C-alpha cells in the first residue's frame, strides 16, 4: 500500500495557529501539512505527574485541535523519545518536508541537529524559522560583530533596528488554510500522556493596565501584572503582536520584552553561563550552601515577610511578582550565601513562566556574577523593600495569614548578613 505524501509542521514553543511564521510557510508547501506535537519523554520524565505547565501545554494543544477540526483537519499528538517518534513517522508517511520554529536552548539545539540529520538522511528537507524573538542569535551585535554583554547598548541597537522596520509583520490566515492534511486524529487525554490536572493554572494574559506599567510595576499588592510571560514562553501569543502593541503603548513594558531577547542572545552566544558564572572572576566565592537554610527559603519561613510572601506565592500559584523575585533572589545569594544555581533550579521547578535564558540571566544578575549584573556589594534590605513597596502590608498578609499573630524572628540579622556577604565576595573574587 502506497504511503501518503505529506509534509509536517512541528509545534514546540509556538502553540498557536495565528501569526506563526513556521506554520505560515509550511502551508505554502506543495504537500498537505500534518500539524504535529511530540510530548518528549526526555523532558517529561523529570517532571511531577501534576506539573501545571504540562497541563497548560495540553490545554493549548486541545484549543489548536478544536480550531483545526473546524476546517476538517486535526492535530497529531505523539509521545516518546523524539528521534524514535520521527523514525516511526518516516516509516508511516512519505514525508517531503518538515517545518519548525527555532528554539535556542542547548537541549533543543542538539535535539534539532539530530532530527535534521535524520531527515536529511531520508531525503526530507527541514526548514527552520525565527519565531519566538524579533531578533535572534547574532542579529544585534557591536560594530566588531561581537555580541553585547551590557543591556543598554543592546537595547539601543535593538530599538534602532526595530524602528527601521516597525511594525514587524504579523503572519495571519493560517487558521483558515485549505492546505492542512484532512484528518481526524484522536486527541489524547492528559491521563493518557501520564499526567494529571494541577490545582495551579496559567492565567489569561491581561494588558489593561500596561499604559500605567511604570507607575504600578513595583507594587506587588496591585494586580497590575500582565501575566504575559507564560504565554510568551509557550507561544500561545506571538511576540511580534506583543512587541508591536507595546511599542505603541508603553516604552517601559517594551524594554522588559527587550530584556527577554537580551538574555536569549546571551544564552545562545555564551552557553556555558547555564552552569557557570558569566564572570569567571566570581568562581572563587565560597558559598555556605546550608541545606537547612535553603529549605527555609523554599518554604517561605525565613522570618522576612516579603521574602516569605514571595516564596509562598510561588509555591501556591507558580507566579511571583517581579519586584519580589529580586528580593528573594538577593536574599538567597547575599544573606544566606547560597549559590544562585540552587535558586535557579528551584524556580525552574516551580515557575509557570520558566524560561532558561531569563531565569539564568536574572539569577546571575541578582548574585552579581552575570553580565550587566547588580554589583556584588548591592544587598537588598528586605525590610526596606517591604516599607517602600508594600507599606500597608496588603501583599504580605495575602500570603502570610499568620502575620498579625506574632510572626517569627528573621533567621539572620540583615546588617551581619550584608557585611558577611561583602566580605565573602571580596575574598572570593579572583584577581
TrEMBL record:
Q: Where is this site: Electron transfer via tryptophanyl radical?
A: 287, 340, 363
Task: Pinpoint the Photolyase/cryptochrome alpha/beta domain residues.
Answer: 5-134
Q: Could you tell me the keywords of this UniProt record?
A: Chromophore, FAD, Flavoprotein, Lyase
Q: Which domain of life is it from?
A: Bacteria
Offer one Pfam family short name for this entry.
DNA_photolyase
Q: What does this protein need as cofactor?
A: (6R)-5,10-methylene-5,6,7,8-tetrahydrofolate; FAD
Among SUPFAM superfamilies, the record links this protein to: Cryptochrome/photolyase FAD-binding domain, Cryptochrome/photolyase, N-terminal domain
- PROSITE patterns to which the protein is assigned, alphabetical: DNA_PHOTOLYASES_1_1, DNA_PHOTOLYASES_1_2, PHR_CRY_ALPHA_BETA
Coiled coil feature spans? none
Q: Which family does it belong to?
A: Belongs to the DNA photolyase family.
List the protein's name.
Deoxyribodipyrimidine photo-lyase
Amino acid at each position: 500500500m502506497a504511503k501518503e505524501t505529506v509534509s509536517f509542521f512541528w509545534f514546540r514553543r509556538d502553540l498557536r495557529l495565528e501569526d506563526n511564521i513556521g506554520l505560515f510557510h509550511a502551508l505554502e508547501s506543495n504537500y498537505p501539512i500534518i500539524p504535529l506535537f511530540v510530548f518528549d519523554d526526555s523532558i517529561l520524565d523529570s517532571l511531577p505527574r501534576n506539573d501545571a505547565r504540562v497541563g497548560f501545554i495540553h490545554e493549548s494543544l486541545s484549543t489548536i485541535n478544536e480550531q483545526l477540526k473546524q476546517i476538517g483537519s486535526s492535530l497529531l499528538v505523539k509521545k516518546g523519545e523524539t528521534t524514535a517518534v520521527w523514525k516511526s513517522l518516516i516509516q508511516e508517511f512519505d514525508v517531503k518536508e518538515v517545518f519548525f520554529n527555532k528554539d535556542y536552548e542547548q537541549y533543543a539545539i542538539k535535539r534539532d541537529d539530530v532530527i535534521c540529520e535524520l531527515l536529511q538522511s531520508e531525503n526530507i528537507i527541514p526548514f527552520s524559522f525565527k519565531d519566538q524573538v524579533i531578533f535572534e542569535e547574532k542579529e544585534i551585535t557591536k560594530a566588531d560583530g561581537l555580541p553585547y554583554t551590557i543591556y543598554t547598548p543592546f537595547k539601543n541597537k535593538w530599538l534602532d533596528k526595530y524602528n527601521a522596520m516597525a511594525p514587524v509583520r504579523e503572519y495571519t490566515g493560517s487558521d483558515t488554510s485549505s492546505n492542512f492534511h484532512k484528518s481526524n486524529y484522536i486527541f489524547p487525554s492528559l491521563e493518557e500522556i501520564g499526567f494529571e490536572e494541577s490545582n495551579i493554572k496559567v492565567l489569561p494574559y491581561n494588558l489593561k493596565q500596561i499604559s500605567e506599567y511604570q507607575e504600578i510595576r513595583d507594587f506587588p499588592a496591585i494586580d497590575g501584572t500582565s501575566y504575559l510571560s507564560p504565554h510568551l514562553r509557550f507561544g500561545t501569543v506571538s511576540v511580534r503582536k506583543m512587541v508591536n502593541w507595546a511599542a505603541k503603548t508603553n516604552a517601559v513594558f517594551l524594554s522588559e520584552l527587550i530584556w527577554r531577547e537580551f538574555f536569549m542572545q546571551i544564552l545562545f552566544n555564551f552557553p556555558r553561563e547555564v552552569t557557570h558564572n558569566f564572570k569567571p572572576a566570581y568562581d572563587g566565592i565560597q558559598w555556605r550552601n546550608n541545606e537547612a537554610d535553603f529549605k527555609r527559603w523554599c518554604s517561605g519561613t525565613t522570618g522576612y515577610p516579603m521574602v516569605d510572601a514571595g516564596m509562598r506565592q510561588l509555591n501556591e500559584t507558580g507566579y511571583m511578582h517581579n519586584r519580589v523575585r529580586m528580593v528573594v533572589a538577593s536574599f538567597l545569594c547575599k544573606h544566606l550565601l547560597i549559590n544562585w544555581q540552587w535558586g535557579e533550579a528551584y524556580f525552574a521547578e516551580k515557575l509557570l513562566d520558566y524560561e532558561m535564558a531569563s531565569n539564568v540571566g536574572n539569577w546571575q544578575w541578582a548574585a552579581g556574577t552575570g553580565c550587566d549584573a547588580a554589583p556584588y556589594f548591592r544587598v537588598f534590605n528586605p525590610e526596606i523593600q517591604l516599607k517602600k513597596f508594600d507599606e500597608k502590608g496588603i501583599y504580605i498578609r495575602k500570603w502570610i495569614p499568620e502575620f498579625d499573630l506574632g510572626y517569627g524572628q528573621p533567621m539572620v540579622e540583615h546588617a551581619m548578613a550584608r557585611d558577611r556577604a561583602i566580605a565573602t565576595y571580596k575574598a572570593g573574587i579572583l584577581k
